[in-house]
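Annual report, structural modelling task.

Input specification for the N7-methyl-guanosine-5'-monophosphate complex:
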Amino acid sequence: MQFCEEAETVDTSRLNKRIGIKTTVICPATEKHVKKYLRQETFLINETEDDYRSITLPHITQQSFSVQWVYNILEKKAEADRIVFEDPDPHVGFVLLPDFKWDQKQLEDLYLIAIVHRRDLKSLRDLTPDNLPLLRNILEKGVEAIGKKYNVPSSKLRMYLHYQPSYYHIHVHFTSLDYEAPGCGVERAHLLTDVIQNLQVQPEYYQKRTLTFPIRADDALLTKFREAGKI
Ligand code: G7M
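The model returned the following structure:
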């Protein structure tokens, strides 16, 4: 099945004028892909520390979301030729490469992801001050690599983590500040610099704080929150 999605990643009129409409073709498209790109009502969930422990974490564990594509990248079984930078250190290292959403034809919608080598961090919720060297390393070396390769300075980069992510293996998004990437809004994106500071100020910030995130009507996690009487 072929599923064609129009202009999901290009929403600035300036860019549209310059390059026309950009299209992403996903082939073969799974049921999950089709669902993902259909317009859906969304809801906001305020997830407390207890909600994470009793609802979200069991859901993530039961669903065992596949991160095989991530491991393939880390093991150089996929996209090895697209790697922009790698720090191979097992604790603070990462691989930086273009996100699937970026065709690399223009810098206006620059979009890369830094995928960490270590495999024990699922999401923001797992981060503690122990991970500060990892996060600082991604910030410092990611910015440096993007500056060298694309001549884009840190003042033109938006660097953030998603909560909830689609894939439960810590990764950081690097996008052009001029590009309003899907998922870069306040309800889902957490700036890397803020994450670092929050961990410095309050060690258990991401375990204790209520985190708000958007969720689509067809997401099984929404059903779990409903069943628990949380929304
Ligand atoms: O934070 P969140 O989990 O929502 O984002 C995951 C990001 O990974 C998205 O921006 C996707 O476009 C990107 N992505 C997903 N897959 C399956 C791949 C892939 O196989 N290769 C690359 N380069 N990016 C991907």
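Strands lie at 3-6, 23-26, 42-47, 85-87, 94-98, 111-116, 157-162, 171-176, 189-191, 211-216.
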